[in-house]
Design brief:
about 100 residues, mainly beta, about 50% strand
Length: about 100
């Protein structure tokens, strides 16, 4: 069962890899499925262990936790977010987005 309420045809679709707590809400680490130029290839590390290498990774800022528990996130519009000052250097090349629609 998809985490989206409607089919993702014509929308940007991303498969959730995992969530991480953030100072406000959570961060969703996702692999973009149908807009490859949005993300970048990354080898992700979780709990100091290699989690896997994925071709189109982005981090979605989810301050309201509206994507909690979803396996797929679909969206049309977004804004790019600045890198936080305390960023993990392994994540400095991963685009960060806030979904606006």
């Amino acid at each position: 069962m998809s985490g989206c309420s409607a089919p993702c045809n014509g929308h940007i679709e991303a498969s959730v890899l995992y969530f991480k707590q953030a100072p406000q809400g959570q961060l969703a680490y996702v692999n973009v499925l149908n807009k490859p130029d949005l993300g970048s290839q990354q080898t992700l590390t979780r709990d100091d262990k290699e989690y896997g290498t994925f071709p189109h990774v982005i981090i979605i800022n989810d301050p309201e936790m509206k994507f909690k528990g979803q396996r797929t996130i679909c969206f049309d519009e977004f804004s790019k977010q600045p890198l936080p000052p305390d960023i993990d250097l392994r994540e400095k090349d991963i685009p960060r987005l806030l979904i606006t629609k």
